[in-house]
Amino acid sequence: MNIFDTHAHFTEDREKTSATLERAAAAGVSRLMAVGGSPELNRAALLAADTAQAAANTGHLPAVFVALGLDRDQAAPQGTACPRYDFSAAIDSRSRISAIGEIGLDFHYAPESARAQCDLFAAQLELARELGLPVVIHTRDADDATLGVLDENDFHNGIIHCFTGSVPFERKLLDRGFMISISGIVTFRAAENVREAARYAPDDRLLVETDSPFLAPVPKRGSENEPAFIVHTVEFLAHERKTTPDALAALTTANAERILSC
Ligand SMILES: [Zn+2]
C-alpha cells in the first residue's frame, strides 16, 4: 500500500521518532505530515522531518511534511495580546513547511476561552494566507464559530482534521472547499456518525490520518497510536466505502498531494 498519514504528532525524542518512522514505512506509509500546534509540538514536527531527511538517501523512511502553528490551547488569557508564532527556526530549517496547523476551536474542553480561541484562529488564518499555505483545522463543539471565523476571513484552503461532526456540518465545510480527514475513531463501535460522514465525503475530498499518539484504531485500542496503525483505518474505511484498501490508499494519497502541493 501507498498510504499518506496526514496527521501525526511527535516528541523531541529523536530515537523514538526514528523507530516510529521505520515501523510506518514497513506498514506501507510512504508519506506523512508531522503536525505542530504548540512550541514543543512544532519543534518535534521539524525534528521528525529532519530525521526523515537525514535518511532520505537510504529510502527506508517515509517522506515527512510539516505543519506548524498555534492551536487553541495556546490562546492568550483575557486582556493580553494574541500570541504570534515565531517562524524563524522553521524558515532556517531545511524542511519544507506544507501547512499551518493545527489550529482551530475547541469549546468542549475550554468554552471559557472561546473569544481568545477565535482571535488566535483568525490570526493563524491570516498567517496562512500571507504564506500561501493551507491550514489544518481542529474543531470540536464549535461548528458555528468555526464557520463564522472561516467566512469572516473568506478562507477556503485546508483540511478538517479528525472529523467527528455531523453530515450537515460536513456539507458546509465541503461547500467551502475543505478536505475531510478521517481518523481511527471511524473504527470505534459508538462512532456511527463518523462512519456516516466518512461515507458521505466525495472521492476527491477524503483524507486519512492517525492523529497519533492519540486515538489508536481497533484492534490497537488502548495502545499508544502511531502512523503504522493507519493500515487498520484504511482497511476499515475501504470496507465502509465499498472499495479496496489499495484503491482507498491511492485516492487519499492523491488528495493529500494536491492539498499540500507535494
Ligand atoms: Zn492533532
Strand order of the largest sheet: 1-2-3-4-5-6-7-8
Topology order in helix (H) and strand (E) letters: EHEHEHEHEHEHEHEHH
Rg, alpha carbons: 17 Å
Please report the first level of CATH classification, the CATH class: Alpha Beta
Shape: globular
Per the CATH scheme, the topology name is TIM Barrel
At CATH's second level, what is the architecture?
Alpha-Beta Barrel
The count of helical stretches stands at 9
| CATH superfamily grouping | Metal-dependent hydrolases
Strand content: 15-25%
Percentage of residues assigned to helices: 40-55%
- The CA-CA distance between the termini, in Å, is 18 Å
* Total count of strands: 8
pLDDT under 50 segments (min length 5)?
none
Main sheet properties: 8 strands, parallel
Structural class: alpha/beta
Bound molecules: zinc ion
Secondary structure layout plus pairing:
Blueprint: E1 3-8, H1 14-27, E2 29-37, H2 39-54, E3 63-70, H3 88-92, E4 97-106, H4 114-131, E5 135-140, H5 143-152, E6 158-160, H6 167-175, E7 179-182, H7 192-200, E8 206-208, H8 230-240, H9 245-260
Parallel strand pairs: 1-2, 2-3, 3-4, 4-5, 5-6, 6-7, 7-8
Bound molecules: zinc ion (ZN).
Zinc ion binds next to loops.
In short:
The protein has helices at residues 14-27, 39-54, 88-92, 114-131, 143-152, 167-175, 192-200, 230-240, 245-260, and strands at 3-8, 29-37, 63-70, 97-106, 135-140, 158-160, 179-182, 206-208. By secondary structure, it is α/β, with parallel strands linked by helices. The longest helix is centred in the middle third of the chain and has 18 residues, at 114-131.
